[in-house]
Amino acid sequence: MNNPSDEAKTLMDFDQVVQGRRSIRGYLNKPVPEALVREVLALAMRAPTSLNTQPWNFYVVAGEVLNRIRRGNVERNLAGVPHSREFRLGPDYTGAHRERQIGVAKQLFAAMDIAREDKAKRQEWVLRGFRQFDAPVSIVITYDRAIYGSDVAPFDCGGVVNCIVNAAWSRGLGTVINSQGIMQSPVVRAEAGIPEDQVIQTCVAMGWPDDSFPANAVVSQRKSVDEAAVFLGFDD
């Protein structure tokens, strides 16, 4: 496959991508070519999918369309309109899950010099999330409502999203999976022209990383294999 971008001359190997990738929350004011996004999606769509159902669809927005989504999302959230995410959030995190959530928040706030008592900076950080971190591109991932209610479709969407962020990183692009950007789903649906036969699953903000943005240096920690895995039946 020919690479249409002068920005990504050398592709990284798989281990480099997975070990080096991190969430990017600050972007350069620089457009991403449509051809490069298409290349990322074409590669990502080789993700595993149950029975080859391929339930995913993508609404790729940029420019003024994305700006209208940002404005609507921010305005409705500031006005106190309850969120309308179309996937189930479930109960609040507790225990180890909550500890990890707090841990990465502390890393980000420390990098951005946001003190616990600094309400203005904390509010601006929240608003950045509502604005999809001012990324030049947002990929809204949906799946067919005909299979709503099955856990398989969201599972497959998660697989393709993982491939999107890794394919983008291998080409010099940064991303962050950002459900804050679709909190007000009526705005996203209207501005992106998403029909009612689609369920909005999540979105991925994408662009060229701003290496001077402090939060971009944050690397979240992972638990060890021994904490996560149980091995049975091995002879060694």
Task: Write up this protein.
It contains 8 helices and 4 strands. Strands 1-2-4-3 form a 4-stranded antiparallel sheet, with helices on both faces. Helix content is 40%, strand content 12%. The mean pLDDT is 94. The protein is globular and about 60 Å long. With 236 residues, it is α+β, with helices and mostly antiparallel strands. The protein has helices at residues 14-20, 34-44, 63-78, 95-111, 119-130, 152-170, 185-192, 225-228; strands at 56-62, 137-144, 174-177, 198-207. Helix 1 (14-20) crosses helix 6, helix 2 (34-44) packs across helix 6 and helix 3 (63-78) runs antiparallel to helix 7.
Please summarize what this structure is.
The protein has 8 helices and 4 strands. The chain is an alpha+beta fold.
Characteristic terms for this protein:
236 residues; alpha+beta; four-stranded antiparallel sheet; globular
Gyration radius (Cα, Å) is: 18 Å
* Low-pLDDT regions: none
The end-to-end span amounts to 42 Å
Helix content estimate: 25-40%
* Protein structure class: alpha+beta
Q: What is the H/E string?
A: HHEHHHEHEHEH
Shape: globular
Task: Kindly report the oligomeric state of this protein.
Answer: single chain
* Total number of helices: 8
Give the rounded overall mean pLDDT: 94
**Largest sheet geometry:** 4 strands, antiparallel
Strand content: 5-15%
How many strand units?
4
Chart the SSEs and their pairings.
Blueprint: H1 14-20, H2 34-44, E1 56-62, H3 63-78, H4 95-111, H5 119-130, E2 137-144, H6 152-170, E3 174-177, H7 185-192, E4 198-207, H8 225-228
Antiparallel strand pairs: 1-2, 2-4, 3-4
Helix pairs in contact: 1-6, 2-6, 3-7
